[in-house]
């Protein structure tokens, strides 16, 4: 039952926006300029593979909370070294521009219209590992109609740590059972459910490209399963479809 839900919060990378295509698009001219012979999508995948290990150092307490822009920058330099380019030989402004590719990602085709419908009835906000500046810039560029932008540094925790969910609910002045996480990732939803959140699964079968093999179907009996944000709005009783 979803009758008591007051806020819908969203995973962003993969659920709301297409990170892989956006990062590949931004990386392509950089790779060509510096003679790195790798497919831009493969480069995006390599950069993304360092995402969870970097956050795990924060989650485990091995390093203090560090915003995602900084982690992305460190990971970018490591991936460039893996491909034979010393980042010290690249202008800082050029590296920074590429690192901010994550600020310039495109929404999935149904995201803006679906969020706009959901906003008529619910508080909508990101519950993302992204930092506030990243999510703000992304929203301005993509037209994402958030009611609030709650980056990970607001919660001071990275998903799937329970604090990431519980602190977000507290910031919104809501009980966990009044909040639904909407995500394309079963693991994220499982972590949210364990803290008392309701859950909505929206598969994004092209998040990792045509060969994607995970998160193609719900792994549990999530409270809502919808093929896209329009269907999610229908399921949540929002008009305008």
TrEMBL record:
- Which GO terms label this protein's molecular function in UniProt? hydrolase activity, acting on acid halide bonds, in C-halide compounds
**UniProt superkingdom:** Bacteria
Q: Name the Gene3D superfamilies on file.
A: 1.10.150.750, HAD superfamily/HAD-like (3.40.50.1000)
NCBIfam families found in the cross-reference section: HAD-SF-IA-v2, HAD_type_II
> Any idea which UniProt keywords this protein has?
Hydrolase
SUPFAM superfamilies, per database record: HAD-like
Q: What is this protein called?
A: 2-haloacid dehalogenase
Which organism does this record belong to? Falsiroseomonas stagni DSM 19981
Q: Short name of one Pfam family for this protein?
A: Hydrolase
